[in-house]
Amino acid sequence: MNYVIGVDIGTQSTKAVLVDERGTIVAQHSSGYHPDTPKPLWAEQWPTVWMKAVVECISRCVAKAGEAGVASNAIKAVCVSSLYGGSGIPVDSDMKPLYPCLIWMDRRATAQVDAVRANVDLERLYAITGNGVDSYYGYTKMLWLRDNEPNVWANTRFFLPPNAYVIYLLTGEVAVDHSSAGNIGGVYDIAKRDWSDEALDMLGIPATMMPEHLVESSDVVGGLLSQWTEQLGLEAGTAIVAGGVDAAMATYAAGVTRAGQHVAMIGTSMCWGYINQSVDAHHGLISMPHVFNGLQDIYVFGGAITAGASVTWYREQFCHAEIEAAKAIPHGDPHRLLEEDAAQIPAGSDGVMFLPYLMGERSPVWDAKASGAFVGLSLYHTRAHLYRAVLEGVAYALQHNIVAGRRGAKSLDDKLIVVGGAAHSDLWMSIIADITGFPVYTIEQDVEAAMGAALLAAYGTKLISQETARGGWVTLIERARPDPARQSMYAERFGIYTDLYPALKPVMHRLQAK
Fold first, then answer.
1. Is the pLDDT reported for residue 369 higher than 80?
2. What is the domain extent for residue 237?
3. Using an 8 Å Cβ cutoff, are 434 and 487 in contact?
């Protein structure tokens, strides 16, 4: 039997899963950390944190598999998925990092967004890239480094996405997968599947900073260097497969490889996306080549910056009683205690509504100065009301993206697949079904992007057929169906949700003014 490892470098943890060629999980491991947020709306990470976590996760998986009788020479490949690395890691000619990676959550490049809007032919940029202008995109973050860190800019040889940097360390080869390249935004030609010299010239970014070698997510970039064999427990020469952006990888893990299928990945952030063969930037969503069949298919998605992060923020700031109570219960989880109370609250949270814009917002709002809000509070409301309102607010944000996405999708399947940490919550799955109107399905196995990476590792090394790679390994289970009465009520409330941001936008911006 042959085996592969899928690795997913996330915003708050790295996960690895070791499976056989039928997708059976033999071992898995995760390692947690937090991004650095030195200033409001800043979010960055030194790549050494990611590499340390990757080494730990792979080595622990290999060790656990060894205890189960799996020989190291039976592990044929490793594939690395990663969070969207925003700017990428600026490295010098010796491939040493010069500055932390400005990750997807970072929104500091507001002045650069204004400059692009004022000085660049936006319609041409939209046509080339299929993407818009926002501080979410990596190219605006690159311009921030150019304008604010001139020494870093002057010495930058390449900007490398997190998975590409890790793969370079493992193999000595520099390559960027198409999904990561496309998600940078304004520097990638979505039709040609290549860097755009025209767009780079418009933006003033040297083309030489973009690594020449672009690869498909299933391509083998190189073999594992011998210097890693002892630490990782793998054989020298083990194939290292390119991987891609985690949202697309989690979508692929759910078996989504054809037009119309759609998935919501709800972890720290929320990404809802579908497969298409064309894209229009005017619909306000993000596009990149898909991680499977990426030379033909495009992964189109929109998302909320703080989805699970909103839940974590609320728990850590306001729910100390539940946190302490959970400690007294074997395997206690404060989220479960909060969910039990919130489940007793009527749908609609007795008039409380939450805007989950705690780090500005992505699609379809696209406003770095948007801010979070509870609206409709009274003395009657409790922590349970607010917790349910947070879950509902993220679900409204999901529906906001689905409504925007329908304008560009040829069709959408009649079921919504949800992956990520949110899938552990029965209440949240029920709320999402009621607000979106879709039956909600989740993956039976407790893995997402890491399983997608493992599947690509097996496909890239020809351990599985294209048919298997297209269908995937996971099993979907139905979790919730929309209740007609609640769906009708939420549809009315969704209108209020979409009215809130335009009404509050002037006040939000005044509060953000320096």
1. yes
2. 3-244
3. yes
